[in-house]
């Protein structure tokens, strides 16, 4: 079975501003990197819109409806906070970003693909149950996890996050739920200020913070020594990846020194755990990554590993 690629042109129409780092060119760079002969075997499909019901498994319904009601006029924007900005196309983009995760879970759980990558924006791992923040509107990875549990009766789902920023939103959504495991490496201290080792939820959260300047060796050691053993012990029925590539050494928003080969290595490790625990089923969703060249190279390494692992 091949790897599924889900995306939608509506994700390009989320336009938070000319100088905003979470820009449409990020997605263009990712799609260009995957539009080569090497990736010809990807199954390509359009991301559907998530439903209010699917989003409301994670976020209060009034929050979902309030976000979807924000529709600035063409060419205008509305700031939800200092970093999180919506344009005319943002609501649909957010629906497609979350909907891609839902569709990816459906495809993988039905056996239509073994693995899936969602090339979407806006990202999701900073969105808390009732608070948009950090460029994020909906918690895409948790929406996908709830779809696996609700529609496919998967008892335990693991979310693994290697974005350079801690996924405070993901953690807030799952920290009291023993059926979802959350593991994260991230630079610390750094925005959003969460992700210290003592933050363990009810034993279902493993944070492995890395100091500024940490390189691929430290990155790999954190996964090998801390997160992967806990993930194996959890025995997930599905693995979901929050694939942020801003830990790359070229990224302008942080100071880790990870390289694209390290992202490829980790993807292989996570797929190996999936083979042992859940028939190889992996769904990955794009999160951060703000140097376009590094983002393109890292995404290619990640998807290459998803396809061959």
Note down, in words, how this protein is organized.
The chain is α/β, with parallel strands linked by helices and 309 residues long. It has one domain: Arginase, Chain A, CATH 3.40.800. The protein is built from nine helices and ten strands. It has helices spanning 24-33, 52-55, 61-68, 90-109, 140-152, 168-174, 216-234, 260-277, 292-308; strands at residues 3-7, 43-46, 77-79, 85-87, 115-118, 157-161, 180-187, 205-210, 238-243, 282-286. An eight-stranded parallel beta sheet has the order 2-1-5-10-9-6-7-8, sandwiched between helices. A two-stranded antiparallel sheet has the order 3-4. Strand 1 (3-7), helix 1 (24-33) and strand 2 form a beta-alpha-beta unit. The model has no long low-confidence stretch (mean pLDDT 98).
Residue runs with pLDDT of under 50 for 5 or more positions: none
Oligomer: single chain
Instruction: State the CATH topology.
Output: Arginase, Chain A
Mean pLDDT: 98
- The level of helicity is 25-40%
Count of DSSP E strands? 10
CATH domain class name = Alpha Beta
Q: Which sequence of SSEs, written as H and E, runs from N to C?
A: EHEHHEEHEHEHEEHEHEH
Q: Summarize the main sheet.
A: 8 strands, parallel
Q: How many whole angstroms does the radius of gyration measure?
A: 17 Å
Helical/strand content category:
alpha/beta
Task: Quickly give the CATH architecture.
Answer: 3-Layer(aba) Sandwich
């Amino acid at each position: 079975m091949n790897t599924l690629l889900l995306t939608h042109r509506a994700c390009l129409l989320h336009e938070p501003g000319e100088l905003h780092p979470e820009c449409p060119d990020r997605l263009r760079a990712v799609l260009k990197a995957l539009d080569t002969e090497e990736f010809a075997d990807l199954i390509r499909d359009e991301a559907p819109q998530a439903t209010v019901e699917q989003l409301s498994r994670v976020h209060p319904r009034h929050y979902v409806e309030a976000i979807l009601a924000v529709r600035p006029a063409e060419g205008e924007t509305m700031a939800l906070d200092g970093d999180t900005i919506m344009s005319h196309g943002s609501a649909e983009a957010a629906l497609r970003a979350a909907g891609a995760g839902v569709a990816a879970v459906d495809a993988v759980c039905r056996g239509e693909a073994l693995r899936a990558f969602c090339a979407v924006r806006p990202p999701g791992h900073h969105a808390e149950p009732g608070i948009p923040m950090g460029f994020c509107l909906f918690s895409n990875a948790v929406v996908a996890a709830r779809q696996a549990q609700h529609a496919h009766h998967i008892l335990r789902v693991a979310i693994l996050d290697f974005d350079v920023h801690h996924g405070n939103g993901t953690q807030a959504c799952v920290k009291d739920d023993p059926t979802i495991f959350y593991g994260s490496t991230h630079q610390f201290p750094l925005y959003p200020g969460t992700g210290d080792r003592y933050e363990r939820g009810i034993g279902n959260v493993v944070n492995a913070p890395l100091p500024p300047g940490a390189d691929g060796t430290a990155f790999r050691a954190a996964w090998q020594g801390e997160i992967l053993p806990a993930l194996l012990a959890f025995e997930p029925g599905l693995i979901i990846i929050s694939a942020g590539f801003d830990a790359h050494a070229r990224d302008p928003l942080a100071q880790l020194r990870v390289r694209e080969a390290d992202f490829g290595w980790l993807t292989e490790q996570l797929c190996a755990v999936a083979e042992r625990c859940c028939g190889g089923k992996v769904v990955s969703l794009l999160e951060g990554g703000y140097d376009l060249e590094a983002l393109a190279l890292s995404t290619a390494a990640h998807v290459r590993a998803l396809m061959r692992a």
